[in-house]
Specification:
Strand content: 25-35%
Bound molecules: adenosine-5'-triphosphate
InterPro entries: AAA+_ATPase, ABC_SmlMolc_Importer, ABC_transporter-like_ATP-bd, ABC_transporter-like_CS, ABC_transpr_FbpC, Mo/tungstate-bd_C_term_dom, Mop_domain, P-loop_NTPase
EC number: 7.6.2.9
Number of helices: 9
GO molecular function: ABC-type ferric iron transporter activity; ABC-type quaternary ammonium compound transporting activity; ATP binding; ATP hydrolysis activity
Largest sheet: 6 strands, mixed
Distance between the termini: 32 Å
CATH superfamily of the largest domain: P-loop containing nucleotide triphosphate hydrolases
Strand order of the largest sheet: 7-8-9-3-10-11
Shape: elongated
Structural class: alpha+beta
Helix content: 10-25%
Enzyme class: translocase
CATH topology of the largest domain: Rossmann fold
Number of domains: 2
CATH class of the largest domain: Alpha Beta
Protein name: ABC-type quaternary amine transporter
Number of strands: 21
Length: 377
């Protein structure tokens, strides 16, 4: 079976990790999560540098770990390439010697070492750099040497821990594209750790969102963007997100929901998308998720005249000018009155923001149509 199958459950002092995933081999899986979510721990468990309490790891039918059957290959016996955040290149060795290091440790014959180093450097587009020392390379090139060192061992599984973390913003952009094409050309099963959503978008054919040692959501990019299931993912994809409880249907087919964890209760009129429970009548009490695109929210100082719109009063807590690449929009965060929900975010044009002269601390009405919402189970 051409799959990477992983089940890991362990406890490290107070930190518990419990996760399971299966992905097609030859693809890149991204572990996305905040600092401390457990991402590096998963890599260490995959590499065999840590042992879980119980677990199972197999790739293409080859079992690396099966706690029930007492199988646990040592790190040396797992065909895994591991690229650490800091690359850990040997500063006094040339690029050639850095890449050859693991091969020499395997006591391979010299011609084979030369062939493998040359092949690995060519894969990362660094042929001709053999004699350079690490300090003569840019950050992006050092990162590729570290990658070549891992690839030279011809691993079946490549583990990349925050591969872009040590790079400045400009270099990160270039290296991101380059790394993506190297991984695509190589076609190696890869697990990549990051806390940047943009990396998840660029690299991840499959994205696992980790929080406190648990997978809180997994899927492709569009699954996350269209159906976030937590405030964390919704923030990453730039949407407003609410858990809610279905109360009743309105005659026009829209639904009245009550937002969860609000005291006093807040109602919202929402719409299910066609094809997604669009025709199915759900019972009252059903838990639903609701997202609203910040660009569909209107802000004004007086209550909206149309009662057809959802409208909430709140106080502006932050005004942020988005980069001009985002269309010169202004992001306004509004803390809704009397409820302890994360602020509602509206994105309005720079012209509207200038016309209305918003300031932090002002009371405003945020409104949006039911048709601007997207509800799902
Ligand atoms: N060997 C260990 N013993 C005890 N606790 C540990 C051990 N290794 C990691 N932890 C704890 O496990 C949690 C997850 O750590 P981990 O490094 O996997 O997170 P992460 O998502 O990779 O974060 P970062 O992006 O900061 O590296 C942390 O709370 C950490 O303190």
């Amino acid at each position: 079976m051409v799959m990477l199958d992983v089940f890991l459950s362990t406890q490290l002092n107070t930190f518990g990790l419990d996760m399971r995933f299966s992905v097609a081999s030859g693809t890149t899986t991204v572990l996305l999560g905040e600092s401390g979510a457990g991402k590096s721990t998963v890599l260490r468990l995959l590499a065999g540098l840590l042992q879980p309490r119980v677990g199972h790891i197999s790739l293409d039918g080859i079992v690396y770990l099966d706690s029930e059957r007492r199988i646990a290959l040592s790190p040396q016996d797992r065909p895994i390439g591991y690229v650490f955040q800091e690359y850990l290149l040997f500063p006094h060795l040339s690029v050639f010697e850095n890449v050859a290091f693991g091969l020499r440790a395997q006591h391979l014959a010299r011609p084979i070492v030369r062939e493998r180093v040359s092949e690995a450097l060519s894969r990362v587009h660094l042929s001709g750099f053999e004699k350079r020392q690490p300090h003569q390379l840019s950050g992006g090139q050092q990162q590729r040497v570290a990658l070549a060192r891992a690839l030279a061992l011809r691993p079946s599984l490549l583990l990349l821990d925050e591969p872009l973390a040590a790079l400045d913003v400009q270099t990160r952009r270039e290296v991101r594209q380059e790394l993506r094409s190297i991984l695509a050309e190589t076609g190696i099963t890869t697990v990549l750790v990051t806390h940047h959503y943009i990396d998840a978008l660029v690299f991840g054919q499959h994205i696992l969102v980790l929080d406190q040692g648990r997978v809180i959501q997994q899927g492709g990019q569009s699954d996350l963007a269209l159906h976030p299931r937590s405030t964390y993912v919704a923030e990453l994809v730039g949407m407003n997100f609410f858990h809610a409880c279905l109360m009743r249907y309105a005659p026009d087919g829209s639904c009245i929901v009550e937002l969860s964890q609000t005291q006093p209760t807040l109602e919202m009129t929402v719409r299910f998308e066609e094809g997604e429970n669009g025709s199915e009548v759900l019972p009252a009490g059903t838990d639903v998720c609701v997202v609203i695109d910040p660009r569909d929210i209107t802000l004004q100082f007086t209550p909206p005249e149309s009662s057809a719109r959802n409208s909430y009063q709140g106080r502006i807590v932050q005004i942020l000018n988005l980069p001009s690449a985002s269309g010169g929009l202004v992001r306004v965060s509004i803390a809704l009155d009397g409820v302890s929900l994360p602020p509602l975010t509206a994105e309005i044009t720079g012209t509207s923001a200038a016309r209305l002269a918003f300031e932090e601390g002002q009371l405003v009405y945020a409104s949006f149509k039911a048709s601007a919402t997207h509800a799902y189970l």
